[in-house]
Sequence to fold (226 residues):
Amino acid sequence: MLLLGGKRFPKRQVNGKIANRLSRMIIAGEYSFNGGKEFINKKYKHLLGEIKDVISAVDANQHKTKKSKEKTMSGKMLFNPVSLNKAFAKEFYARQWRKVKLKCDYPTDYYVKDYEPGRMKGGAFREMDFIKEGLGIEVQFGKYAFMVYNVCAKMTIFNKIGFIDAGLEIVATKRFVDEMSTGVSYFEQFIWDLDNRGVSNIDIPVLILGVDSTTTHKGSPVALFR
Fold:
């Protein structure tokens, strides 16, 4: 057993070796966009507690399953974003959060004269990972463009239609991304752009959480359980 923060936890077997510290996901950073942290703490404090429980329930080492084929880190075991997303989904669904799809009927009124468009395929939609009450969540371990789109477009759309009045996005910190394939964006990069972009009058309150794991974090593990 491991003793951390006054609590006892079992040692875990990871890739044939005993993990000497827990591999729980932790919140390493918070960024309040358009008053998101204050708004969510005031209206959805109970849901914020659930979100923190979800994050800490994910065992990162169980998702270090991707063997790198990149020249710079050939053969190295990396965190698998797809597997991590599934783990987060499992925990959110267990707490009655739901995925919401919004059907899209694309307009055809804005083509220039004499232009003949191709046939539109049906079934287009926009999707938000998790919604409960009026809070929408996106978990993003992918490309940078998706992070920006989630906060600056998708959440605004879902707010306008009446699904949410605030948003929360979970993204990886740079330290955690360093243990993934190249191309995954990270918390520090994202908040720099949001900070320098500023807030528009159509933006909604959003809290950005940067997550890491206790295996990649280099600080004292005891502090992570306060």
About this structure: Confidence is low (pLDDT under 50) at residues 1-21, 220-226. Residues 27 and 211 are 5 Å apart (CA to CA). The radius of gyration is 20 Å. Residues 22-111+120-225 form a domain with the Restriction Endonuclease fold (CATH 3.40.91.20).
